[in-house]
Design goal:
The strands form three sheets. A seven-stranded mixed beta sheet has the order 1-2-3-4-5-8-9. The chain has a six-stranded mixed beta sheet with strand order 10-11-12-13-14-15, with no helix packed on it. A hairpin with an 8-residue loop joins strand 11 and strand 12. It has a domain at 8-198: 4-Layer Sandwich (Metallo-beta-lactamase, Chain A), CATH 3.60.15. It has helices spanning 31-34, 40-49, 98-104, 159-163, 165-168, 172-182, 233-236, 248-261, and strands spanning 8-11, 14-25, 61-71, 74-78, 112-116, 129-131, 146-148, 154-158, 186-189, 193-194, 199-202, 211-217, 220-224, 266-270, 278-280. The protein contains eight helices and 15 strands. The structure holds zinc ion. Residues 121, 123-124, 227, 272-273 line the site of zinc ion. Keywords: Hydrolase, Metal-binding, Zinc.
Length: 282
């Protein structure tokens, strides 16, 4: 039976699997305005490195994806995509197709034991908690409740991100935080933390509690960046700020530090928004 290939990298006993959720143009501003300090020569280098990230009209074209880490001790998901048709990421190409990508990778949502949310922007939490269309036997009709899409997973968010939720998106208290608390699936982290495979690294700046994930074995590692970098221009030139970073100086420091400390060995960058799910550290 032919099955669409699911992009994956093996690191030691873990498999890092890219899970597509959608693709579309960046709707807010031109890419030049999004990275105001980038030069034409730098954009030319980016267009050689990631030619799929610009469309015929010169607009920034993004992918939206999550990653799974599948190993002998369980399955961790990193980020939860743009979400279903009624998700809050109305600017993104909804509905996302993460459920189909999970199925293609042979992952049942009930098998996922950990969900790392890199940050609380709407294009990274879409499938975290979804509307529950439960059919009741009492004839009351469909429930309007919300429930975690990954019923057996612990959801990991940085305390600093949790503390900033009212600034980031106050609606998330009701649509994300409360349901995860009600099901006792929310765990707040303070800084770096080990995972069953790999580790969470605090990388603040894009948002106050942004976090990334590193999976390493021997000389080889995969860095799942979240929005530590959102376009290849920040991989080629990590000092370049993105206008939607909440603290640009802290974001730059986080990016340079992580790319430098992990960059000594063979490093694969697994990003949310670049055209290719895995790119070698340039
Ligand atoms: Zn994003």
């Amino acid at each position: 039976m032919p099955v669409a290939p699911t992009p994956a990298i093996r690191i030691g006993s873990s498999e890092i699997i890219a899970l597509a959720d959608g693709a579309g143009p960046f709707p807010f501003t031109s890419r030049e305005a999004a990275f105001p300090d980038a030069t034409p020569a730098q954009w030319a280098a980016v267009d050689r490195f990631d030619p799929g990230a610009v469309d015929a009209e010169g607009r920034w074209s993004l992918n939206f994806r999550a990653f799974a880490i599948r190993g002998p001790k369980g399955i961790t998901l990193v980020d939860a995509g743009i979400g279903p048709a009624d998700a809050p990421a109305t600017w993104a190409p909804l509905p996302g197709k993460l459920p189909e990508s999970l199925a293609a990778a042979g992952i049942d949502p009930a098998e996922v034991d950990t969900v790392v949310l890199t940050h609380l922007h709407t294009d990274h939490i879409g499938w975290a908690v979804v509307a529950e269309e439960a059919v009741t036997t009492s004839g009351d009709g469909p429930s309007t409740g919300l429930s975690p899409f990954f019923p057996n997973a612990e959801y990991l968010i940085q305390q600093a991100e949790f503390d900033a939720v009212d600034m980031l998106n106050p609606k998330l208290r009701e649509t994300l935080i409360d349901p995860l608390r009600a099901s006792e699936q929310l765990r707040l982290l303070e800084g770096d933390a080990p995972l069953r495979a790999g580790r969470v690294v605090a990388t603040p700046g894009h948002t106050p509690g942004h976090q990334s994930v590193v999976v390493a074995d021997g000389r080889e590692s995969v860095l799942i960046t979240g929005d530590l970098l959102v376009n290849a221009i920040q991989l080629l030139y990590p000092d370049l700020a993105y206008v939607y970073e909440i603290d640009r100086e802290t974001a730059r420091r986080s990016r340079e530090q992580l790319l430098r400390t992990e960059g000594g060995a063979v490093l694969h960058v697994a990003s949310s928004h670049l055209t290719e799910p895995f790119v070698p550290m340039p």
